[in-house]
Structure prediction request, 144 residues.
Amino acid sequence: MPGVVLYVDMDDIDDLFVASLMTNDVKTVTPETLVEMAADLMLDHEIGSVVVVDDDGTLRGILTRTDFVAIVSGQKPKDQTPVSEYMTTDVQTASAGDSIREVADRMVEAGIHHMPVVDDDEAIGMITTSDLTAYLSTVQTPSP
Prediction:
């Protein structure tokens, strides 16, 4: 996965800049793009958002997976399709005792952002890339 660092030496975290981690291949749409076309673009490229720009490239907004949840929820008439038609059944899971580094590596390799935490096939929690980001932002290196 281009632009992704799997292991970060916490001593070097202050010397790590956005440019070294960011994705350069940003997918864009215009404000007039139909949501169906934007969804197809996101699925085709396995991405979680598209940037909305004017014809001259000026940033106008962002459309994310979360926005699509709101779109489906707000549909009139309501869609009567059961979740089973769309859900992922080959679910990557973690155990409560798994290391954060191992789980983060697995999430990056699988290109996923949510991983249920299970105990004997029973969901007991959820670990997300937001959880990992929040943790990384608070990690302090020990003083010598």
